[in-house]
Design brief:
This protein is an alpha/beta fold and 415 residues long. 34% of the residues lie in helices and 21% in strands. The protein is built from 14 helices and 20 strands. Helix 5 packs parallel to helix 6. It is globular, with a radius of gyration of 21 Å. Bound molecules: thymidine-5'-diphosphate and zinc ion.
């Protein structure tokens, strides 16, 4: 169902208060819906419109496509593609082993959205009891192929009961870049409370609202990200389910993320970092609607600047290629109106994206070696969250006279 601009209202997915969109990014396809030319006629669109709940401070999408349109058997995202992300999840797993597991007899670790096993493999390799919950069959199969115990299902209270019946309660629940994908957050919170031992912890991380607002990184908003969290909204969302926010830790991944630790209320003291983060968020205005109205203006300004740059290069006949067919780039290309006339193709290392067209904008996605074979004049850095890794790797592109176009936090051309 597609709504009109005038009907962008609904109810908060967390606290049920009435909400309305403060802006719309317009008609948007599925961010990971890379498609063949013959599929264009049937391409699915919805209106990408975020809302802010003044009652519980949750940033959320008003409308979201059905989950089966997004996380299906052919989900194109394999976590282990990036070397930096592999190191990040190794460090995450080791931190859990060092901080939470000592002193626990035969601990049990459950990860929601375990993807291809990028994090759970570290528990598996040490013989620690684990279970991955991964709805997308193809990535779950990769994990199983590596020996990592994985079930293909969506996590909710019922699944939590089934897991407890079969394996017992969990010492640790983990999730990375997954919780913000699940529309029924109250259902997950209730399931987590049921699955965790009384002294268990739920640790998860997701793109952080404070970074998105500060950097105008509006490309974090796309169909899969039904929420963008803050410490404020997470504390409020879990409290009714008996889970308390006891720690927070900022992460540099995905252009700025936050790791949240939740525990059954009263089971452990909250770190001073929680109160500090909540105060910081109040100072940033994350709990006020005006902040989001200003964010909307910043998005419009960013779009105007990027299109001005791309139009100018197009008129000058420069070759511009996109770097990284990210989910995020679907919001950028469609919101800004970037076409194959602006961006010749998008280079991407993921085999199942190659040879396809980008969602909505229909820019061809080509293998990475087409980028290196004949360097373009400019590369538009869609995978900006991997900028450090990419710029280190692409020194020959710069040496050949190539330049990067970046748009987070500001639109600029850099060497
Ligand atoms: P990702 O970081 O997961 O972003 P999103 O969540 O927005 O999809 O995706 C990175 C994409 O960029 C992925 O398709 C792989 C691609 N990529 C490259 O092509 N080359 C690279 O060097 C890196 C790091 C990523
Ligand atoms: Zn709310």
């Amino acid at each position: 169902m597609s709504r009109t601009q005038h009907d962008l209202t609904g109810r908060c997915r967390v606290c049920d208060a009435p909400i309305s969109a403060f802006m719309s990014f317009g008609r948007m396809p599925i961010a990971n819906g890379f498609l063949a030319a013959e599929e264009i006629a049937n391409e699915y669109f919805f209106e990408l419109a975020p809302a802010f709940c003044s009652q519980c401070s949750m940033f959320q999408l008003i409308e979201q496509p059905q989950p089966d349109k997004m996380f299906h058997g052919q989900y194109a995202f394999y976590s282990s593609t990036s070397r930096y992300m592999q190191l990040h999840f190794e460090a995450f797993a080791k931190a859990v082993m060092a901080d939470v597991l000592p002193g626990r007899a035969d601990p049990f670790v459950v990860e929601l959205g375990s993807n291809d096993g990028i994090m759970l493999r570290h528990f598996y390799e040490r013989g620690i009891r684990h279970l991955g919950v991964e709805p997308s069959q193809n990535v779950a199969d990769v994990a199983r192929g590596r020996g990592i115990r994985t079930i293909s299902a969506f996590f909710n209270r019922k699944l939590a009961q089934d897991i407890v019946a079969e394996h017992g309660r969990a010492d640790v629940m983990l999730a990375a870049n997954v919780m913000c994908h699940i529309p029924d957050l109250p259902g997950v919170a209730a399931g987590a409370r049921h699955l965790l031992k009384p002294d268990g912890v739920f640790i998860f991380e997701d793109p952080y609202l404070g970074d998105m607002i500060a950097k105008t990184s509006y490309d974090q908003v796309y169909d899969e990200h039904v929420f963008i969290f803050s410490a404020t909204s997470i504390a409020r969302a879990f409290a009714p389910h008996g889970l308390e926010l006891v720690d927070v830790a900022p992460q540099i991944t995905h252009g700025g993320s936050m790791r949240y630790t939740l525990a059954p209320k009263g089971s452990r003291p909250a770190s001073a970092r929680v109160a500090e983060q909540l105060a910081k968020e109040r100072a940033q205005g994350l709990d006020r609607l005006e902040t989001y109205q200003r964010f909307k203006e910043n998005c419009e300004h960013s779009r105007a600047r990027l299109m001005q740059t791309l139009e100018q290069l197009r008129k000058q006949g420069r070759r511009v290629v996109g770097y990284g067919a990210t989910s995020k780039s679907t919001t950028v290309t469609n919101y800004c109106g970037i076409t194959p006339q602006h961006v010749e193709f998008i280079s991407d290392t993921t085999p199942i994206k190659q040879g396809k067209l980008s969602p909505g904008a229909h820019i061809p996605v080509r293998p990475y070696d087409e980028f290196t074979r004949a360097y373009p004049d400019y590369a538009l850095l869609f995978a900006w969250n991997h900028a450090a890794e990419i710029r280190e790797k692409e020194q020959a592109f710069l040496a050949a006279g190539g330049r990067w176009i970046v748009y987070v936090p500001d639109v600029k051309v850099v060497a």
